[in-house]
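// run 5 | inverse folding | seed 20
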């Protein structure tokens, strides 16, 4: 498990990269495995934003959302075929997992 400062730095770096990346156009309005891709993105973004705003102390509701999103991402990632889609949702997966981990 990463040290608290490494944990925060990793999530901050991923968040910056995510905010700079456009949502994959082929997934706007799309569902994969019955999961709305835009909603999945927005749910994780809310969790990450809250985590960063609260200095690594997400509220219980956001923590549960992040925990639920990880298996959803595990379902949809194998269904993605475009390089940018895969990179975008892998980054979301890493962020959701980091939000779910307690800081040291």
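// decoded
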């Amino acid at each position: 498990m990463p040290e608290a400062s490494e944990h925060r730095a990793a999530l901050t770096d991923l968040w910056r990269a995510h905010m700079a990346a456009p949502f994959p156009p082929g997934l706007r309005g799309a569902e994969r495995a019955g999961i709305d891709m835009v909603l999945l993105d927005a749910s994780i973004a809310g969790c990450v934003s809250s985590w960063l705003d609260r200095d690594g102390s997400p509220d219980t509701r956001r923590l549960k959302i992040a925990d639920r999103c990880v298996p959803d991402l595990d379902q949809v990632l194998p269904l993605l075929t475009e390089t940018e889609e895969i990179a975008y949702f892998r980054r979301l997966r890493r962020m959701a997992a980091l939000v779910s981990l307690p800081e040291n």
